[in-house]
Each structure stands twice: as C-alpha cells, then as structure tokens.
Design a protein that fits this description.
Number of strands: 11
Shape: globular
Largest sheet: 7 strands, mixed
Distance between the termini: 37 Å
Helix content: under 10%
C-alpha cells in the first residue's frame, strides 16, 4: 500500500497550489479519501474529505470556500486545490485513505505560505 503526495512548495499569500495524492496497492475506489495537515507544534487536523464516488465532500471551517477536494478513481488520485492561501495554511499536508477499520497515510508534502 502506498500513498504518495506531491505538489507542495513555497507560495506567497493569496496564491494557489494543487496537491495530488496517488494511491497504489489497494482498491482506491472503495476508500473514502481525506487531506489532513499538521503545522509545527499543533495537532494534525482534518482539511477535507471526499466519499468513495466523490458525491460527498466536507471541509474544515478554516478552509471552506478556499480549498476544493476532488478525486479521479480512474487515476487512483485525490487532489486538493488550494486557493487564496494564507500564512496559517503553512503545514505538512497528508492524504489518508479510509475504509471501515482500515486507514492508510501518505508521507506528507510541505506547504509553506510566506511573503
């Protein structure tokens, strides 16, 4: 099982980034997918989640209206489009796959918002 995030980097406030998470080793379309983030000294928090077929999405209050989660089951990939980035969005972003009692994490990708 592998989840590989990419797309992180350094961006100025107000900018945009698109994160990707490519999955392998399990039936991607059977898993709900989510993005979490963890800033230095803070607990890991849920950013967004999407159901198996993509029909249901949920967002953390701090990112509503700015971030969009989507998935392509044909490509085994989940995305996080991040717009209007703020300094407080700086964190390591992780994707997670969940099905019943099973959960898999990626290794994370760093997003730094700085002027």
């Amino acid at each position: 099982v592998q989840l590989v995030e990419s797309g992180g980097g350094l961006v100025q406030p107000g900018g945009s980034l698109r994160l990707s998470c490519v999955a392998s080793g399990f039936t991607f379309s059977s898993y709900d997918m989510s993005w979490y983030r963890q800033a230095p000294g803070k607990e890991r928090e849920l950013v967004a989640l999407i159901s198996r077929a993509g029909g249901i999405t949920r967002y953390g209050d701090s990112v509503k209206g700015r971030f969009t989660i989507s998935r392509d089951n044909a490509k085994n990939t989940v995305y996080l489009q991040m717009n209007s980035l703020k300094l407080e969005d700086t964190a390591v972003y992780y994707c997670k796959a969940v099905h019943l009692s099973r959960g898999y994490w990626g290794q994370g990708t760093q997003v730094t918002v700085s002027s």
